[in-house]
Amino acid sequence: MELLVLLYGLSIIYFLFTIWKRFDEKRDQECYILDYQCYKPTDDRMLDTEFSGEVIKRTKNLGLNEYKFLLKAIVSAGIGEQTYAPRIMFAGREESPTLIDSISEMEEFFFDSVGKLLDRSGLSPSQIDVLVVNVSMLSVVPSLAARIINRYKMREDVKVYNLTGMGCSASLISVDIVRHVFKSHRNLNALVVTSESLSPNWYSGNDRSMILSNCLFRSGGCAILLTNKRSLKDRAMLRLKCLVRTHHGAKDDSYGCCIQREDDQGLLGFHLAKNLPKAATRAFVDNLRVIAPKILPLRELLRFMAVWIHWKISKLSSSSKNSSMKGGLKEKPPLINFKTGVDHFCIHTGGKAVIDGIGVNLNLSEYDLEPARMTLHRFGNTSASSLWYVLGYMEAKRRLKKGDTIFMISFGAGFKCNSCLWEVVRDLKADGNVWNDDVEHYPPEKLTNPFMEKYGWIQDEDLSTFKLPE
Predict the structure, then answer these.
(1) Which family is annotated (predicted)?
(2) What pLDDT band is residue 53 in, cutting at 50, 70 and 90?
(3) CATH number of residue 142's parent domain
(4) 168 catalytic residue (yes or no)
(5) Which domain holds residue 300?
(6) Is 357 within a domain?
(7) Which residue, among 354, 45, 70, has the nearest Cα to 213 in the 3D structure?
(8) Catalytic residue chosen out of the listed positions 381, 418, 433, 449
């Protein structure tokens, strides 16, 4: 009898130990952000209206119709006069880039932001266990990751991932890679470096679908330090709660809507198709369908289900009553309320239309959209790093308090939509923030730029008599 009791007791102890062990292991799989550093180029790389006009005028393949298109695109883009371009633009060599131009642009960012991040965190390069670098439109040998390792003399056993071709959503892909490494290895520090190389990617042709990328993309980048060490969690800023990736590369129209290719003249550029908004919406909806149950309270999911069923029944009933008519009233479908589970929205600054579209689909207020709009105006579309400038704006405005949640949404070529939810683990004070010198001036009263005022006369020009002034 005593032996039986002992066996039962040991079984219970073993069961409890197994549960504790699994719980303990899960704690070592958490993904925290210790710190991040957005890149702010020097003022001599700043694009104002005057210089932007000079760059456009020296692009010889453009005519009056292209100038009119560019003027409309720039004015409506939501981009201001303080964004940055690579040095090759100021040297007037954007149509003849060299390999050194491309590498120098990246190294200027790497050495500034990674250095500042490591200094501020107190970590040495030898303490970095995982390095993930994403720069979509530049692939060199040795890799950009290898250049960082060489510069900072990192350990020979550092786990390295060098990503290219992932587009504007690459930084969340990088975080996802780190998250999966953290699940199988304890006590690691990871460095994610995200940027885009503009030096070799200026389009000098006249295809409108490819000219547009010249208007939107600007220089920038971000270095992010992550960890799963329990001993560092009290120093952390954010904790990753969930991350969802959606890839529509199997759909031909989605695959081709955002693609690097040559135009009819053989000039290389980045093609943005007319069906891009449709492809983005489709990927966005599919992504939300997966992540919503992970981040929203059950009461909101049940409420939305009930409202949606009622709307569907009402729509079917209305259609049957109006079957003999040309058409009835088209009621909008109900929207799920993401604010029931999200405090802040960190939206990719792909352009004003992207921000507006997400705002409509998620029923967001101007307060919710302000960080993305201001980031687009001040820094432009910095590709995969843009999310972190938006996060920096929230931090500089002292919006992020302990316990708040941040929903990040990004889009990229492929076509991809990636999103994740972060939890703020301590009140953030914006030490060393890229916005510190500018945040007092934001939001400005108006976001309009002077392009229409300076170049609006182009709208009244006639194709047969037009001559570009010297």
Answers:
(1) Belongs to the thiolase-like superfamily. Chalcone/stilbene synthases family.
(2) confident
(3) 3.40.47.10
(4) yes
(5) 30-311+331-460
(6) yes
(7) 70
(8) 381
